[in-house]
Amino acid sequence: MKLTLHTDYALRTLIYLGIHTDRLVSIREVAQVYGISENHLVKIIHRLGLGGFIETARGRNGGLKLARPASEIGIGDVVRYTEEDLGLVTCMQPEQAAAGHCCILSDVCRLRGVLGEALASFMTVLDHYTLEGMITPDERRRLGGREAGQAGNLSASDLKPAG
Amino acid sequence: MKLTLHTDYALRTLIYLGIHTDRLVSIREVAQVYGISENHLVKIIHRLGLGGFIETARGRNGGLKLARPASEIGIGDVVRYTEEDLGLVTCMQPEQAAAGHCCILSDVCRLRGVLGEALASFMTVLDHYTLEGMITPDERRRLGGREAGQAGNLSASDLKPAG
DNA sequence: ATAAAAGGTGTAGAAATTATACATCTTACG
DNA sequence: CGTAAGATGTATAATTTCTACACCTTTTAT
């Protein structure tokens, strides 16, 4: 059991945006800072936009920013949204649950209830935290003074031109 | 985020064994009842044996049984054992955590702590239940009177001979 | 108006994980 | 000894996840 990189990246992107609320941040910047695939990040960020977590601006000087203050973005909400498949066992997959015939244990299967309860508990913990809580002074220091290679070993002008 | 089929099957097998405590159950029987691959189940069951959850007996009239009463087998323990990889994000993978340099968020990353707490909460819920709690009278009725095709649509003698 | 910068979208393929099948060995019982 | 049942290892198939590439759309600066 683990969260997908999808969720991992989404959370990190949000944290980064939460630190840089004074300006728009480009996808490329986020990808470079964390050393992850820009192409992959594009899709994750797009989804975050659809989900209303961030606002995007196209065109020159465009970029990303949080749609709401970090204090109003719940970690649980992000995970719930990013992690599409929260059915823990085959019993809980929508198709099967809908059809009513999951495993032979069927609807009297307590397993489903217990796992569901555990999952709810998991989410409840996450719901107690907001993005703001993820941003410590230490991190702000680490990722905050970035402009010219504080965060990584690259300067803003090092970004490859286009092709 | 979801548990592997591995865990799913392991739990179901244990439930089945918990219902049939009066005799040894063969792997083939479990596989047929749930309609899952016998070959796959073999390995899962082997691991359950290594983990001390069940006892196996080889040879003619061999089979499986719970190593302890169902009331002493915690669901959390089973999941913890079966689900090897409980690191929720790359931050938490042992290799990386050990090396101390996970993501650039590094050790001041609160994310890790929060996800860890959520996971602990998840497991705590599971720890409140034992295998015994998973076995309801309904299920016992459903899987209990099996001998000749109550559970599936097969009789004990329908099991394919060998090759 | 045009060019450049940045996000949006779709597809294809690589890599990793998970599940299944097959073959063979070991053990226990009769 | 022969058979039934678990133990083990390997190989293949299926699925999921990740990456790369190509091209489109929108916005802004000149």
Description:
Two copies of one chain form a homodimer. Chain A is mostly helical and 163 residues long. Chain A has two domains: 1-70 and 132-148, Arc Repressor Mutant, subunit A (Orthogonal Bundle); 74-129, no CATH class. Helix content of chain A is 49%, strand content 5%. Chain A has helices at 5-19, 27-34, 38-50, 75-82, 94-99, 110-127, 131-134, 137-144; strands at 54-57, 63-66. Chain A has a two-stranded antiparallel ribbon with strand order 1-2. In chain A, helix 1 runs antiparallel to helix 4 and helix 2 crosses helix 3 (38-50). Chain A is globular, with a radius of gyration of 19 Å. The N and C termini of chain A lie far apart (39 Å). The model of chain A is unreliable at 92-108 and 146-163 (pLDDT under 50). Chain A binds a DNA duplex (30 and 30 nucleotides) through residues 4-6, 26-28, 37, 39-40, 42-43, 45-46, 49, 56-64, 162.
